[in-house]
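Before a colleague's protein record goes any further, I have to sign it off. I want your independent view on whether this chain really folds as the tokens say. The record follows directly below this note.
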Amino acid sequence: MVNRMRDATICVYLGEEIAQYGFPDGHPWTTTRMDAFWQEATRQSLSSKVVIADPVMAQPEQLHSFHTPQYVELVKRCSDAGEGFLDHGDTPAFPGIYEAAAYVVGSAVAAAEQIMQQRFRRIFIPIAGLHHAQPDVAGGFCVFNDAAVVVKHLRKQHGIKKIAYVDIDAHHGDGVFYPFEADPHLIFADIHEDGRYLYPWCGSEDETGVGPAYGTKVNIPMAPDASDADFFSAWPRIEALLMEHKPEFIILQCGADSLKNDPLTHLAFSTAAHSHAATRLCHMAETLGHGRVLALGGGGYNLSNVAQGWSAVLRALIEAPIIPAQP
């Protein structure tokens, strides 16, 4: 870890280990996304206001908390061979993909642990939020599901039950939603492009949780070309859900592919949406008395949008007021 500042409350995980989570041969998820973000954050003088942490590699037992051992072994084999697909065609293997994906997961778990140990109040990981990976298969460029592993870690190591997962990526967070669909303590809220028009073709408004989890999930599909006005109109539903259930930890997946002019999606948000989501989630975490917010970068395939959207999230994490604990 570098840039140690005793008064810093915000941390960012950066390093080649997670930057290398990217695909070759003209794939839209490139290895340049982290650098594009950090150059913009530096230009905006945000980099001097945070602590930088080095990536951490996940151990097999951490991956196994959500993923099947058979799938983890498949990723290893394909990684060693440097070829093959880990899903039905969107997520190709490349040499070292296992290590790169394991660093994403390990960094997310380490970040959650730092928050729980009160070393930092809020943390941002730009290359993270791989929300399509299922327990036994990759999906949508996502190999291992770091957010899901964080949920498992928080429960096992800290006994935290109520965890909020908020997703503003253009794609539905199916790899988090369906594995936890019947879990009443995973509070799930997702604003995304309508699944009738975009992968993974799901996340309809009537998907609100099943069995004991009914009513603990909110899916808000948006029509193509939905604007900031649509986002701000929908957002209060997310705040109402979280304040009703009072989560003890908040995860934000802030994919920049919901911003206007992304080459793979059709929403038209501006960075105001990302800033508002991060600011309000920080406020809710403070109001609930713990302040715990972990932000994960998610998707985004227009490098300017990635740089601007993630910088807006980082600025919100830095500038959102902290409410001192009551004596």
Notes: The beta strands are 10-13, 51-53, 122-125, 163-167, 186-193, 217-222, 249-253, 293-296. The longest strand covers residues 186-193. The two ends are 32 Å apart (CA to CA). The chain has a mean pLDDT of 96.
